Amino acid sequence: MTRPPKYPLEALGEVRARRVDAGAEEVARAIGAREAAELQRARAEAARTRVEAEGERVRRTEKESLARGELTAADLARGAAWEVAAREEAARHREQLERAASAAQAAYETEARAKEDLAARKSEADVVEKDRAKWKARETKRVLDREEESAEEAWRRKA
Fold first, then answer.
1. Is the CATH number 2.40.50.100 carried by domain 10-158?
2. CB under 8 Å to 84, separation ≥6 — which residues?
3. CB-neighbour burial class of residue 114 (10 A; exposed 0-12, middle 13-18, buried 19+)
4. Every domain of the chain and the residues it spans
5. What is the pLDDT of residue 41?
6. pTM of the entire structure?
7. Cα gap 23→130, rounded to integer Å
């Protein structure tokens, strides 16, 4: 009996399947990077909020002390110096938040590109799989036709 024919695009199908697997790994890495970037952005946001809230609390306390007449000129000078330092710290935290937000946006974009690439790779692999199914159906039909022809020939010889 003859060996069944091998699908002619088998190697291409394997290459495309490996590309799909590699694309899935890229998407997984991109998702991990995006999640890490989101966590950094959330931490930066929380730090900025904490610093701003603490600054407001100190300002409110100082204002209340000033209203009660409890502050000296030295206290006012220290308060002014603290205000400069607090504004610089708040500005640093806003910059960190902006950088973290930019990194998170870039990670989102990288993830989207990886997903698009994976979809294209899957589409390419699907083309080969659909062709394989058609080829297999043709081969099955060819084998069945050949068997039917052989059966008819054998029947004719007997008759």
1. no
2. none
3. buried
4. 10-158
5. 97
6. 0.76
7. 20
